[in-house]
């Protein structure tokens, strides 16, 4: 039986493509309309796993996913980094010179600024989803309208790619994590994710990071998020790279001794560098 993997967005989304690549296309994908539905899909029995985007090299952290990760009891089991290449997609027979409107998610539109500068007569329209924009364009059948999405969306909806790789910067990657009910049992895990709540006192962040520097452990990510119902209190999300060792355990123990809470979100193999 194929594993069921939930993703946020409509069929053809970058997240769906990421799930297919991660499972070598032997997977049943489950679309979710929102991040909230994505993070409850496993608990509700709609999926075995959930694939969530945590950060993009251009847009930064997906903060809502971090908040939901802390609020739920899901574990990070693995990660995958995918290139994000935006395509201009329209109905068969459409031409770039005849377009009057292009729609997509606001982040995708912002990442294709050079295209709109080169085509000032084309109106940009904000939509909720990249792949959903392609679906809408195909349903309308209007050759003067197009969408910005990935090539996967064009395949799903039988649309035509009018122009490829229209993003401003080719160094555009999104990091996705696979979430499940239980932690991954990987003996040689080399990446670890934590949620840390520090005491509200002078120097707490400095002292929390000190053990990592002391034992030569590389921090791969640091994000600060406000704690709900606790004004001016903050939660820190940390990713660090380290093989299992005595030094790693000592660093974690020192961190626990000085923090109010240290929650392990997952230990897994780091995705290949792109």
Describe the structure.
This protein is an alpha/beta fold and 274 residues long. It folds into three domains: 4-83 and 172-180, D-Maltodextrin-Binding Protein, domain 2 (3-Layer(aba) Sandwich), CATH 3.40.190; 87-163, D-Maltodextrin-Binding Protein, domain 2 (3-Layer(aba) Sandwich), CATH 3.40.190; 191-266, Alpha-Beta Plaits (2-Layer Sandwich). It contains nine helices and 15 strands. The protein has helices spanning 14-22, 35-40, 63-71, 106-110, 113-118, 130-140, 151-157, 204-214, 246-258, and strands spanning 4-8, 28-32, 49-56, 60-61, 75-83, 87-90, 101-104, 123-126, 145-149, 160-163, 173-180, 191-198, 218-226, 234-241, 259-268. The strands form three sheets. Strands 1, 2, 3, 4, 5 and 11 form a six-stranded mixed β-sheet that branches. The protein has a five-stranded mixed β-sheet with strand order 8-7-9-6-10. Strands 13-14-12-15 form a four-stranded antiparallel β-sheet, with helices on both faces. A hairpin with a 3-residue loop joins strand 3 and strand 4. The longest helix has 13 residues, at 246-258. The radius of gyration is 21 Å and the shape is elongated.
